[in-house]
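2-dehydro-3-deoxyphosphooctonate aldolase KDO 8-P synthase protein (Haloplasma contractile SSD-17B), 215 aa
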Amino acid sequence: MNPKKIYRLMKKFGIRSIIRKKNRHKHLYDAYKSHHYFENVLDRNFNVDKPGTVFATDITYLTLSSNERYYLSAVKDLCTREIVAWKVSKSLAISLSIDVIDQLVERYGEDYIKDNDILIHSDQGFHYTNPKYVNKLNKLNVTQSMSRRGNCLDNAKMETFFGHFKDECNYDETKELMDLTEIIESYMDFYNTGRYQWTLKKMAPAQYRNHLLAA
């Protein structure tokens, strides 16, 4: 039918054309669809025999006495319980998860990461389902494992570490990111080299790593 005739009929009978507005949430849904989710490969098998092969990662928030909020991202070796990479930031940008992977590569070397069937476990947070993060791990031949939705016990070793950190590290009175970074760095050094653990034959994580590598 001729568009002009349609317009005349609509005008005659008082019919108004309804134009669908652009959905403001469509781009959010499209972004959601592009994210990737993975099986729980780790399946709570937290007892790992070889250092530098199976890692857990997570992000927690740190609230200061000034009510400012910062975010701490960390990677833990599940064999030695050592924190092998970490970053603190005022932003929840995707770089918070990617930068610790860069640290992991710098620590172990890209060839080591690619050739040793590395597994990294996380929750299903958007940092770990983001295509940039997923593609980075894929290029490194790293296997991704994810907790079941809403099940924090699937990543219990990271939950435990963050619990110890918040109980033992006096960070809440700091005012500047630089000061907070120094305090966290000091605690990480203590945790890795001076905090003895019963499950590590009463050794600190770094000491236990050296013990295993020398065996």
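The longest helix spans residues 177-193. The longest strand covers residues 54-63. ok done for today
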